[in-house]
Amino acid sequence: MEYKVLNSIKSPDDVKKLSNDDTNVLCDEIRNKIIDVVSKNGGHLASSLGTVELTVALHRVFSSPKDAIIFDVGHQSYAHKLLTGRLDRFDTLRQEGGISGFMRPDESEHDPFVTGHSSNSISAAYGISKAKTLTGTGGKAIAVIGDGAMTGGMAYEALNNAGAKKGNFIVVINDNKMSISRNVGAMPRAFTKMRNQSGYHKLKFIISNILLKIPLIGKPLHNFIYLIKESLKSLVYKNNFFAGLGFNYLGPVNGHDVKAMEQLLNIAKSYNRPTIVHVVTTKGKGYLHAENKPKDYHGVSSFDVEKGKDKSKMKTYSDVVGETLCQLATKNKKVCAITAAMTEGTGLNVFAAKYRPRFFDVGIAEQHAVTFAAGLATGGMVPYFAVYSTFLQRGYDQVLHDAAIANVPIKLLVDRAGIVGDDGESHQGVFDVAYLSTIPNVNIYSPCYYDELKRSIIDTANKKELSVIRYPRGVENKNFDGEISGDYTVLSQNSKKVIVTYGRIFANAVEAQKSLDNVDLIKLNKIYPIANELVELLLKYDEIYFFEEGILSGGIGEHIAAQLYKKDFKGKYNVNAINNEFIGASTIESALKKYHLDSESMIEIVGK
């Protein structure tokens, strides 16, 4: 496909030179390019399609990188990447060695901050804004927040901190029906139309200056009129939340009208106070399949552009979790399910439909979700919180303080545990074991196969313990028909050499054992706390090879090593894990091979 205007954009400065007609063509070409690449590579489609015109307007008004523009969640930034010199690399989006699906400062000077996780843009942008003032470097900071990120509590902490301060600090709220409701009625529309005209603001400034210059009565009169105006705004807009926090509010404005947004952004740029610009967009704009079903096209694998997503798919670990919870909920009226804005992703859509009173989507608020689960459990319910490993990181303190200290029996279903592939550094689920195993009273299970996952969920339902069940992304590799039970399972060949592992890569170890002569294999089912009997068993081996799809520091391999050497173990102990680094985008298979966690690597390491 030919991209006549897009190919001419080498930097954001080129966007400012375009005519209105060429600007509209540019938006169409950006949209087509995003659809083309994401259909091949997978990625976050609907979100980036919805922010095309908004991104173009931002780059026509502001001057990146001097003006720092931070997109939150970062998967809204595909158009931004295309306008900031990355068109020639855009085909490598989310590929090994390619550009990230999120904002990455090490990728471009136009990405001022990492925004792989949500709700951090306002804090970061406010910090950058203050730093610019203190260092005298000039430029502005703009947070572009949306796609549900306004359901995260950190956004409100930042708004509370930044409000009512001096200085030009701008928050653009991308309202794509994921977080903010529309104003209702004719009067709000009329007032909005008036307030979004530049003449209105110029007149307001002139009147304010005249009043303040009148001796004696000027300032009291100015303040009186201001109070009248704010009361009227509160009456018209029902809940003037942002004004209450000290922000000037502009909008809402059509997020697919570049000219209208330019006008409003220029007004925001002229203020010397924090300003909210409320932009209304359509998620999936320009691709009918995504517009009709934006949730289905939020994060996608490769697909046929003409036909849309293929609805047929293999059963995944997440699907098994959803099915099992439904079975539990039918028998046990106390079973509840919680998600943090990931109903479909965690396999809870059927549960949500069948057991609506016992299903809770708390938004992007993992901290709240953990403590809410602890409250449910304290009240006698059996709550299961299904959450991606990478997002549970936000709830560490709540697991420790609100659940573990009192040993509240919540159940954490940790999805996407281990390597996840093409989402890259910010989303790999390789840290959960290391940080959760630092907390007393936490019990961690790591099944490999569907039947084992199902049994783990059912068995923990009646246990008065804080249970963590972690499982990977994707589908099982069912290559073992033996029984897996207890804290660990031994596949013995009466050897003095043993492979020890857990989770998904047990399937790789099974394949490796078939090709190795006289090697035992131990699968950890409950990986923490470590059973004393396991340590005593391992003392009998001369060579122990531990394989762990997780970070080395603080991992189970290190925990077992500490216990073995306390008991004066004299044999060889080899831990193969991820050596304390962030894992970039790649296929899961490629990453497992890189970190020597595939069956071929196991054969090579153990067979030496």
How many β-strand runs? Answer: 17
The class by helix and strand makeup works out as alpha/beta
Question: What oligomerization state is this entry in?
Answer: single chain
| Gross morphology | globular
**Helix fraction bin:** 40-55%
Write the layout of secondary structure elements.
Elements: H1 12-16, H2 20-41, H3 45-50, H4 52-61, E1 68-72, H5 78-83, H6 121-135, E2 141-146, H7 153-162, E3 169-175, H8 186-195, H9 198-213, H10 218-236, H11 241-244, E4 248-254, H12 258-270, E5 275-280, H13 288-292, H14 317-331, E6 335-339, H15 349-354, E7 359-361, H16 366-378, E8 382-388, H17 389-392, H18 396-404, E9 411-415, H19 432-436, E10 442-445, H20 450-460, E11 466-470, E12 488-491, E13 497-502, H21 506-515, E14 520-524, E15 526-528, H22 532-538, E16 543-551, H23 556-566, E17 572-578, H24 588-594, H25 599-606
Parallel strand pairs: 1-2, 2-3, 3-5, 4-5, 6-7, 6-8, 8-9, 9-11, 10-11, 13-14, 13-16, 16-17
Antiparallel strand pairs: 10-15, 12-14
Helix pairs in contact: 4-12, 6-7, 9-10, 14-20, 16-18, 21-25
